[in-house]
Amino acid sequence: MSSYEFNFGQFKTAVGFYELENLIPDSGSLFIADENTSYLIPKKYLDRCVILPPGEEFKSWESIDKILTKAVDLELARDANFVGVGGGVICDMTAFAASLFMRGCSVTLIPTTLLSMADAALGGKTGVDFKGYKNLVGSFYPAKELRIAVDSLKTLSKREFLSGLAEVIKSAMIGDVELLEYIENSRDDILDLKKESLNYIINSCIKVKGRIVEEDLYEKSVRANLNLGHTFGHALESVTGFSTFSHGEGVVWGITKAMDTSLELGIVSKDYHSRILSLLKSYNYRLEADVKATDIIDAMKLDKKKKGGVVKFILQTAPGETLIREVPEDVLYSVLK
């Protein structure tokens, strides 16, 4: 199994693969988990552990307050190491709290879902939802270390696994044509959680994202491509109260709308558009949502990729060919009708 070290601006992130029994580091000053992942933390560390309820609805200031309060109660200092054990929500909040405590302490992330291994834990995006909007408050603060145990994916529900696979498909579309073909041709092995397949797709995603973030940590240019499907998807999550669609399900719906937008604008071939929709259907993703176009458009107006008051959309013209552009509102209404 490979290991990696990335240079993200002034930050260095080491990525390593471990067996479950060696997953938790001894260097942790404060451990953050949710009720689904706390079993991974040895009992000897539970007195310096914050265990949060699971789910997007708890990705909030209140949870950050609990983490920081525990750090103060433990009399930690700037040399502390916050260790987050969980999915994307836990990883995002652990790194956000670490970026705030004493103006920045060390953070180690232990992603336990496919979504967090393939995307959320790497690259330093942190944050919480605020005023009903996804990740509206946050920071760029890469972890010092990522520790991955592929075997932890065996505990995921099929829905949670497919949610993470959405980010794998996105990464393949923007940065790895061979991975895209593998996902198309290896459906059964992937859904059967064959370890060789999981290792391949996770390593491929780490290389795609690591390469992009090394070039553009603060999302001034090419890193925005990683948001393919997210402008539409985050809006869907927001208008449905973060309870109907998981993040990955929102991304899948967003990818279909981004591809529909490209088709409407005449910048993508019908063949590639059909190829992506066929791929998503082959994994039995839900591609429709009962939402009003006006609600989605209103929610997108607070998208973080907005510049000068204008929302920018991440669109594709071909595999590996991604662009950022404005989209006329009449096109959006047509796509969302």
Automatic annotation (TrEMBL):
The answer to whether keyword Hydrolase applies is no
GO terms in the biological process aspect are: aromatic amino acid family biosynthetic process
Q: Which InterPro entries match?
A: Dehydroquinate_synthase (IPR050071), DHQ_synth_fam (IPR030963), DHQS/DOIS_N (IPR030960), DHQS_C (IPR056179)
UniProt key word NAD:
yes
Q: By its UniProt entry, which CDD domains does this protein fall under?
A: DHQS (cd08195)
The protein's required cofactors: NAD(+); Co(2+)
Which keywords, in A-to-Z order, does the entry hold? Cobalt, Lyase, Metal-binding, NAD
Q: What is this protein called?
A: 3-dehydroquinate synthase
Q: Name the source organism.
A: Thiospirochaeta perfilievii
